[in-house]
Design the sequence.
């Protein structure tokens, strides 16, 4: 998933780069939660915005009412509650239509210095209907920072053996 950025002017009139954390719609308006890139321990801020068909943000406006701030705070608290427990076991992918897909990481393993994982699309408490495999690069905190293709028949054969052995253990 490609990160999204935008630029704003700070209080000193300097242009700052902002990283989109989350966008959402509420009460017929769109909002963006963001952090200022490069700031250590950057806090999450919010603005009203416009979202185009590709999910890109533009036309920013400040939040105006206490009720609006409370609603945004509630969304932020929900996100923290949902996603802060163990995010090394989840990831978000973007499909061809630009839609985010929430995935559960089922198993990670390393072979000859290369990292692999099995994952499934999170289907809200249901058993996964399909399991996917990929090589990956881990970020600083163990999160999946980039998925890589499985390149050779030998890699696929090894992955199939690992999956078969996991299936045997599960039985």
Sequence:
């Amino acid at each position: 998933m490609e990160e999204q950025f935008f630029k704003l002017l700070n209080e000193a009139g300097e242009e700052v780069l902002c990283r989109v954390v989350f966008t959402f719609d509420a009460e017929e308006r769109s909002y963006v939660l963001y952090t200022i890139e490069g700031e250590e321990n950057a806090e999450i801020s919010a603005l009203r915005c416009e979202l185009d068909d590709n999910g890109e943000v533009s036309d920013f406006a400040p939040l105006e009412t206490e009720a609006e701030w409370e609603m945004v705070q509630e969304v932020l608290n929900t996100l923290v509650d949902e996603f802060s427990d163990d995010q090394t076991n989840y990831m978000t992918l973007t499909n061809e239509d630009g839609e985010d897909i929430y995935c559960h990481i089922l198993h990670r393993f390393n072979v000859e210095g290369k990292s692999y994982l099995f994952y499934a699309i999170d289907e809200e408490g249901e058993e996964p209907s399909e399991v996917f495999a990929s090589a990956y690069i881990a970020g600083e905190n163990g999160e999946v920072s980039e998925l890589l293709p499985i390149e050779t028949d030998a890699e696929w054969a090894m992955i199939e053996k690992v999956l078969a052995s996991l299936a045997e253990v599960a039985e």
